[in-house]
Amino acid sequence: MAEALLKAKKLPNVEVKSAGVFAANGSSASTQATEALLEKGISHQHSSQVLDLELINWATHILTMGESHKQMVVAQSPRAIEKTFTLKEYVQGIKEDIADPFGGSLSIYRYTLEELNELIDKLGEKII
């Protein structure tokens, strides 16, 4: 959902790629994620990919949803420590995870989408 929101905002000079530390290559977004995005007028064709060294090296910034994800990125590539942050850490300067809606109801996905939307709006203000 974060990737879809970032792409929908069309921030200048920002290219977005989504990858997961627990993802399986080629999976589509959950029905709940797709529905929550469609309610916001965002249509997004998602195909998951596993985070790998090529993506880590490609990125100028790596923003994770939680601290455990951040630690897994850094464990995979210790040099990435300088460019890896949780989204809340980068935007708000706080150490707090974004709740993972995986397996939850549509209302939980809506809640997470709203949280992401607010953070990504602030991210857009910070990087422009």
From TrEMBL:
Q: Which SMART domains match?
A: LMWPc
TM stretches of this protein: none
Alphabetized CDD domains for the sequence: LMWPAP
Residue ranges occupied by any Phosphotyrosine protein phosphatase I domain in the UniProt entry = 1-126
| Molecular-function GO term, any one | protein tyrosine phosphatase activity
Q: What protein is this chain from? A: Phosphotyrosine protein phosphatase I domain-containing protein
Q: Which organism is it from?
A: Priestia koreensis
